[in-house]
């Protein structure tokens, strides 16, 4: 809600959530939700932001049956992921708009080696 309130009053500011709030959501729920559902969630978000009249999606974790997309965002909202591991980094390069690597896993100044999505739709941001 805070990000929404800030964005409502600011025209040149961009805001995105960067950290999961553990007191509000248990680490078990976060881990289980994120483990298999991330790829599907990105696709569902993009479908619901589309200009289609109706969308369908059938996955293991998410399902839409004739859902009505919208409202469309007033401006472009990127899907940025803070993930690690070769498979998810490959997914970031194919499907996300950017990568927000955690400094504790990918410290600045230390080469990330294979741990870097080379074809992000947009860019990489250090947190």
From TrEMBL:
Pfam families for the chain: Bac_luciferase
Domain Luciferase-like stretches: 37-109
UniProt keyword terms in alphabetical order: Oxidoreductase
Record's compositionally biased regions (Basic residues): 113-127
Region (Disordered): 105-127
One function term, GO molecular function aspect: oxidoreductase activity, acting on paired donors, with incorporation or reduction of molecular oxygen
Designated name of the protein: Luciferase-like domain-containing protein
Record organism: Micromonospora sonchi
């Amino acid at each position: 809600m805070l990000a929404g309130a800030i964005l409502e009053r600011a025209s040149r500011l961009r805001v995105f959530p960067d950290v999961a709030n553990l007191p509000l959501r248990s680490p078990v729920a976060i881990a289980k939700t994120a483990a298999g559902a991330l790829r599907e969630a990105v696709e569902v978000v993009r479908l619901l932001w589309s200009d289609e009249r109706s969308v369908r999606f059938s996955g293991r974790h998410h399902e839409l049956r004739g859902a009505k997309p919208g409202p469309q965002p007033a401006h472009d909202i990127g899907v940025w992921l803070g993930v690690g591991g070769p498979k998810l980094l490959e997914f970031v390069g194919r499907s996300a708009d950017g990568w927000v690597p955690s400094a504790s896993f990918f410290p600045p100044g230390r080469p990330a080696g294979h741990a870097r999505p080379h074809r992000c739709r947009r860019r990489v941001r250090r947190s």
